[in-house]
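quick one: nicotinamide-adenine-dinucleotide bound model?
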Amino acid sequence: MSSILVTGAAGFIGAHVARALALRGHRVTACDNFNAYYDPALKQARVQQLLWPAGVNVSHVDLTDPALTQRLVDASGAEVVLHLAAQAGVRMSVDRPLDYVQANLLGFGSVLEASRRAGIAHLLYASSSSVYGHREGEGEHGAKPFAETDRIDRPASFYAATKMANEAMAYATARVHGLPMTALRFFTVYGPWGRPDMACWLFAERIREGLPIRVFGKGQLVRDYTYVADTVEAVCRLIERGAPPPDAQGVPVETFNVGHSVPTTVNELVAGLEAAIGRTALIEHAPMQAGDVPHTESDPTRLRAAIGVWPRTSLAQGLAEFASWLAWWQQRGDGADAAMLQMPRPLPLA
Ligand code: NAD
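yep, here:
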């Protein structure tokens, strides 16, 4: 069992992974700055509902403060760092790129520096499918899955640019200091305790309320929707597998797509949500948004070779879990704390 520091642990993926690691017997230290990108009450509720019952406390730390980050890493006694804290979201990066410089470049730089000074044995960090960018000639048909060896030098958004930069920063740190690094290229994660800024939540909320949803273009954008418990299982297995050995150039780095590997159009997502919620969506079409790419799909070959195959959750089952969680979340009303303690069903990772 390892001692693991998880950053961004009040976030969607972070809360689920930190909980799962603790339940698997690892010693978990966790931090987050509880920023207001979306409702901080949701972050606090994840801590109460997912983390405290698993014995994980979350320290309030802003990783853009290098001295504080060093104190956190030193005090954690961690062997492994799982860095998930970031300013997420492609669309906001169009108007507010400097928020991404702060969280994703300064924040990650400060985690890298503190980790190598503390002698961390393995650092895994969140990259993104967005690093694959917009590929010429790919539109609605005939697009191929993304392999880790594909070029990643054409970001379609500033968010993607910061994730590319993270991979370069990690590589340089591994090369110069020998700190082993694993890049996790996540593909559109969804599920209970998810992110309210993402399509799955936005659509589900409005379909439930009988309000129109805005679908960009003709709804033919393809995403590789990945159920959060499957993402979590993959991350846990990558941690437990241990640090990568040096590659052919002597640099201890590795990169993995972490996705469901089932390309799904937005129209198919909407149909799945209609079935899960039991209501028909009212659809309004809107122009395509800056920063969006037409197609994301993970080639799972490398991940499967590393951690084996595990039973993954179908979109229909994952959307049913999410819809029933969202119904509970939205009905909790003013007596939020009392209602949360009476959750009607076991949490997905229990
Ligand atoms: P999230 O926004 O729910 O979680 C990120 C957490 O990091 C938040 O709780 C936030 O408060 C925290 N944070 C931000 N800046 C910080 C700072 N300076 N110091 C400390 N904490 C800070 O996002 P998520 O969906 O859980 O994503 C986790 C990671 O995975 C992110 O790096 C994201 O870019 C990446 N990712 C997510 C997806 C997805 O589909 N959810 C896809 C690709 C990549």
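Residues 97-118 form the longest helix (22 residues).
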